[in-house]
Design brief:
83 residues; 2 strands; 4 helices; two-stranded antiparallel sheet; globular; alpha+beta
Length: 83
Amino acid sequence: FFHNVLPESAASGAHQKGHFRLSSGFHSADYLQCALYLAHPRRAESAGRALAQALLDDGVQPQIVASPALGGLILGHETARAL
């Protein structure tokens, strides 16, 4: 899934490189600002389709899609729509 999204996220400025302290306390050299990436409807639709296809390719056939209200709502909606 991510190998399809990362090149476009870098081009959009959503994939950032540097030194980030994550909310978990861990550190990372990469950060994906999902809100910035998903702010464009075509990218959100494409990401949802890619995630849905990855699930189906793994043999997962969801009956329900749930996503967190903060940060996951748009991707959850687009994934459900694609399924």
